[in-house]
Amino acid sequence: MAEENKPKTSDTAHLYDSTTLRSSAPSRKAAAGRQKQNTEIPVDAIPEVHVPGWVESIFGGPVISSMKFLPPDRMVTSLQLASSITLVLLCFLTFMITPVTGTAWFAISNMIGLGFVGGLLHFIIIGIGLIGGMYGVFQRDQRALLISYCMLIIVTIRFAGSKVEFGLSFLPEGEIAQKFLLILYAIFLVMFIELSSGIIRFSMLDTSIRTGEVYVMGIQKITSRYHKSLLIAPSIAGIVALLTLFINRIIPAMIGVIDPVSANRLRESVELTSVYGVALGTMVIFMIIAGSFAVNLPLRIQQFRDKKTN
Amino acid sequence: MAWSRKSAMFASLAVALYLLGLVLRNQQLVTVAVVLLSFLTWAAFRTSHADVSSSGRRIDDTQNDEGIELQNILAMRKVSSSRIFEDGEIDVSLRLQNRSNTSKVLEVRDRVPEVMRIKKGANYVLMELGPQRETEISYTIETPLRGFYTIGPVCVRVQDAFGLFHNEKEIHLYEDFLVFPKMEDIKDAMIKSRVPKIFTGAVNIRNPGEGSNFYNLREYIPGDPMKKVNWKATARQDGKMMVNEFEKDAVSDIIIIVDSRKISETGPVSRNSLVYSTRAAASLSQYFLARRDSVGLVLYGDEITSVDRDTGKKQLYVLLTKLAGSMAKGNTPLKIVTNRIMPHINRGSPVILLSPLEEDPTIVDAVRDLRSRNFEVTVLSPSSLEFEFDARRLDRTGYEVLKTERDILMAELRGLGAYVMDWEPDMMLNTALTGARGF
User: Fold this and answer.
1) B122: closest CA among A213, A1, A265?
2) Which residues contact A19 (CB under 8 A, 6 or more apart)?
3) What is the 3 state secondary structure string of chain B?
4) What percent of chain B has pLDDT over 70?
5) B5: buried, middle or exposed (CB in 10 Å: 19+, 13-18, 0-12)?
6) Which one of A31, A177, B15, B368 is most buried, by most CB atoms within 10 A?
7) Chain A residue closest to B103 (CA)?
8) Is B37 near chain A, with CB under 8 Å?
């Protein structure tokens, strides 16, 4: 019974007395369809397909993944605590350094002649950011967190005319103190976003560990690495921001070595102290960073670290 | 270096805030943007490697983009067995070595086939691997379904602490293994040929002759050797001499035909006609080969695959391998199969057909042809109606109508002298075979 030539197509003519055989046996599906009073497809026969909405199709998948978590472990609980403290401080800082003047709601409320409504709305937006954030942090609800992020960013969107203004009058008016406060606010905002997303990430990891999907070797080393990064990354970001914001002092100081008169003019330049000065600073700092990437500095550092002990 | 969705969101938010800050001349927004950008840049720096690969490239093309962090990671895998039966277990141990001088936090996933279940341990591990260290991941997989499978590749990922960027590497380490269909012990499947055939490796057939197993008693005929006289029986028969008859030793050729057409996979993945047929074919092969019969196998779906008749343990593994690899494809009619094989098999040999008996108008003709040439045909038909009805994919009325059609077809086949059994999902193979033979 040796194997013979295999049929190349579904046409069976060459195999069976030159007649093409087709399956015309009683079709089960057709019969079932005929016999039923109701011809609808059984629900369990339809595979569950998630049809993405238009937002999801833009992002190429669900914007927020829905996942049920197990009760939080120690790491998640500590992150929740840190995140909630950061959120309270952030909301307080936002309230302090973001005046209602220049916002869209302030302009509208003034137009309708109800000036206090603008202030109230401003307060409500910060409140939504706080409550949404707290709810999101403790319930581990990503939607609430996203709303909180949006509210805390929206509240800062205002026409400022290059002036640094604060919402509370007792805050320092000196340039350095103002800029430090701004950087502190920005760091708190970024830290809140990172810590709250860390809650979701570590909850996912913890759930996966406890359901046996993932096994973690040396979890303490991994979490301590995260904790270290939580201290280092904001510090680095703060230093970079500091260099950027103080470009109006750094450039004149550098020029002053060569030409003190020009340096003095630069110090008094309105453009350099305005937001455009900050833009210039950003450009300079990030050009340096881009240069380090261009020369493959991270790779070289890694190679150096790898070969150091050889 | 690949961007995560989080890093993409951070980057777009930073750019948007930066531009908005410039337009509104708002230093607060610009400061937030700068901090965000610095945060991202630091994470990218930490993840190392500046050669950002463009997306959409094949893994093989990105081999050089994996970054130095992953260049010194090596993997070795060991599996406890490369051939196993359904519902068996395979122990896998994966050894990972970090040959660099820096410690790495790695996410390692050893890819296992989707149908396999992880019974013990985990194939997905997050670990910190120290410099010049190695570690071993062990896990056990359960093999619920027959087939050819591959474990691998090993996916290794390094990412920054915030999950913003990552480098990935696929270590192309593969282990192939084969899952044979599960076998049942068949003791009473009394399928024997009535036609003796001299062939190496003798087994019993149902005709008296010179054999070793007792068959019957009969009266003494002059010429019978005296050693065959059964004296106890002679004493009971009042002096009428009785002699022992023995079963004749000969060889049976058993041909097993398995229907692996597309229709045979109707039903759930683990409970369908093809799964049952392959298990039955494996059990029957083991049984007949243990009896030293010669067993041949024919699989038909989109093509006809056959294994020539042979005996012995080696033949069992050849048959099991073929059965393990059978796929539900095509719609070759049975008549083509029988036309092809009939000239090659001895008349009178038992032919066992394992088929759902659906969507093939040639079944009756094919069985008629086999019967007319004196083949002993046994049809074991796993009913896909039952599988579908159990899975609630078929309503009661439809089921009854189709069941009636099926019963009519089976009655017609029985009318041709074939032994036919409607094999219901929960019925043991032994019971089904006994039912088919009418014992």
Assistant:
1) A213
2) A12, A13
3) CEECHHHHHHHHHHHHHHHHHHHHCCHHHHHHHHHHHHHHHHHHHHHCCCCCCCCCCCCHHHHHHCCHHHHCEEEEEEECCCEEECCEEEEEEEEEEECCCCCEEEEEEECCCCCCEEEEECCEEEEEECCCEEEEEEEEEEECCCEEEEECCEEEEEECCCCCEEEEEEECCCEEEEEECCCCCCCCCCCCCCCCCCCCCCEEEEEEEEEEEEEEEEECCCCCCHHHECHHHHHHCCCCCEEEEEEEEECCEEEEEEECCHHHHCCCCCCCHHHHHHHHHHHHHHHHHHCCCEEEEEEECCCEEEEEEECCHHHHHHHHHHHHCCCCCCCCCHHHHHHHHHHHCCCCCEEEEECCCCCCCCHHHHHHHHHHCCCEEEEEEECHHHHHHHCCCCCHHHHHHHHHHHHHHHHHHHHCCCEEEEECCCCCHHHHHHHHHCC
4) 86
5) middle
6) B368
7) A306
8) yes
Q: What whole-number percentage of chain B has pLDDT above 90?
A: 33
Q: Given A4, A222, A237, which is nearest B42 (Cβ)? A: A237
Give every CB contact of residue B439 below 8 A, 6+ residues apart in sequence: B188, B190
Measured between CB atoms, does A1 come within 8 Å of chain B? yes
Query: pLDDT value at position A39?
Result: 52
Class of domain B60-180: mainly beta
Closest partner residue to A157 (CB to CB) among B29, B68, B391 is: B29
Per-residue pLDDT of chain B (439 residues; tens, 9 = 90+): 788 888 888 999 999 999 999 888 888 899 999 999 999 988 888 775 433 333 333 344 444 444 455 777 889 999 999 999 998 999 999 999 888 777 888 889 999 998 888 898 889 998 888 888 889 999 999 999 899 999 989 999 888 888 888 888 888 889 999 999 998 887 655 444 444 333 334 444 555 555 566 778 888 888 888 888 888 888 888 778 888 887 655 457 889 999 999 988 887 788 888 999 999 999 999 988 887 788 999 999 989 999 988 888 899 999 999 999 999 999 999 999 999 988 888 777 889 999 999 889 999 999 999 999 888 898 999 987 877 777 677 778 888 888 899 999 999 999 998 988 888 877 888 777 776 654 3
- Judge whether B66 and B168 are in contact, CB under 8 Å: yes
What residues of chain A lie within 8 A of the CB of B125, using their CB? 214-217
The predicted complex's ipTM stands at 0.79
Q: What is the mean pLDDT of residues A88-95?
A: 93
User: Given the structure tokens 């001499």, which residue do they identify?
Assistant: B241
Cβ of B301 under 8 Å from any chain A Cβ?
no
B341 touches chain A (CB under 8 A): yes
Given this model, what pLDDT does residue B34 score?
92
The answer to whether A194 contacts B39, with C-beta atoms less than 8 Å apart, is yes
Task: Note the pTM of the prediction, 2 decimals.
Answer: 0.71
Chain A environment of B305 (Cβ under 8 Å): 3
How close is the nearest chain B Cα to the Cα of A163, in Å?
Answer: 7
Whether the CB of A190 is below 8 Å from some CB of chain B: the reply is yes
Contacts of A279 (CB under 8 A, 6+ apart): B22, B30
Q: How many CB atoms lie within 10 A of CB B183?
A: 20
For residue A276, the chain B residue with the least C-alpha distance is B22
Chain A residues within an 8 Å CB radius of B302: 7, 10
With CB atoms and an 8 Å threshold, state whether B161 touches A213.
Answer: no
A-interface mutation test, from B30, B136, B345, most A Cβ less than 10 A away? B30
What are the extents of the domains in chain B? 2-47, 60-180, 203-250, 253-437
**Do the beta carbons of residue B40 and residue B164 sit within 8 Å?**
yes
* B118 interaction partners in chain A (CB closer than 8 Å): 212
